[in-house]
Amino acid sequence: MHRTGELYGHFETLEQQKESAALGMWIFLVTEVLFFGGLFLTYTINRHAFSAAFGAGSNTLDLTLGGFNTVVLIMSSLTMAMAVWSAQVGKKQLVSIFLIATVVLGTIFLGVKVIEYKQKFDHHLIPGAGFDIRYHAEHPTVADNAGKIAEEKEELEKAFAKDPDLNAHAQLYFSLYFGMTGLHALHMIVGAGLLVWLIKGSFAGRYTPQYNTPVEIVGLYWHFVDIVWIYLFPLLYLIDRHH
Amino acid sequence: MSEHIVSPKIYVAIFLTLMAGTAITVWAAYQNFGAFNIVIALGIATFKATLVVLYFMHARYSPRRTQLVIVCSVFWLAIMLALTLADYQTREHTVSRLAPPVIFNLVRT
Q1: pTM for the full model?
Q2: Which of A:71-90 have CB within 8 Å of B?
Q3: Contacts of A70 in chain B (CB under 8 A)
Q4: Chain B residues within 8 A of A33 when measuring between CB atoms
Q5: Cα–Cα distance, A103 to A153 (Å, whole number)
Q6: What is the pLDDT of residues B68-103, one digit of tens each?
Q7: Which of A203, A173, A181, A221 is nearest to A70 (CA)?
């Protein structure tokens, strides 16, 4: 693709050239769908087999942080879509503003993820020798609400009654939790890198109504990453909230 | 060029619908619908994903060729999910009856 958006010799029209670029991105996204699909499949089979452990693991996640991140990510999709629109109608300054907003929201998402991961480390919820799903209930800090800790203990007892190997099976849940959210976060980091590259181009005024393909196809990627999270949020955070 | 420009109004409307969908998902997760909790959660997620694909990703205004690629990806995903799950549901020795992998037995009990 010419950086200025001139027509390459092997295309008939600019429109065909642009559609081909978008189609190429879509074909890449198909491979991504199947890649994440395999993980969702693994999740489904294990959740079905070890439902008590998956429910107990899911309830250790912080719904406030997860919900906040969902809102942040959907907002970033809106700002990304608005960046594409700004380029299409030739508002060059708005392109930069919306792209910067998108990368800022993406960074907030990753920052919250860091807080969540840190919490899991502190609560001994990393799969491995030190894993113990009861650790937090048995070692509450001053910041914890005593009533909530008692409730957590009671729920864990019930879960252990259903599945004596809860600690082993909950590690399957957390392996999938870290694997899936980790890969999602890696995609976000790649997306943030692409956005920084776009922002550089937008400062140079490169994206115009005639040529905005890079904004459009990075947008496709960014929205795809949003879709993955749309599924991850209910599947990881909301398994067993209703008891 | 005859590309279709989606207006900011539509983008904002889609955004608000996605927000409402998220709120309903969280609300529904706290209700006890039995086996339907997961059906509702996945139903709303799929509705949200469809909106993102159709409007944010412009699939509704894309050429038929691109739309075909998108439908194919869902189709192949469905094959992978359906056939693998059918296998797990119908074989005798499936994961639910196996001991956990040895690596997870390092745990303190």
Answers
A1: 0.91
A2: 71, 74-75, 77-78, 80-82, 85, 88-89
A3: 22
A4: 73-74, 76-77
A5: 40
A6: 999 999 999 999 999 999 888 787 665 655 555 555
A7: A181
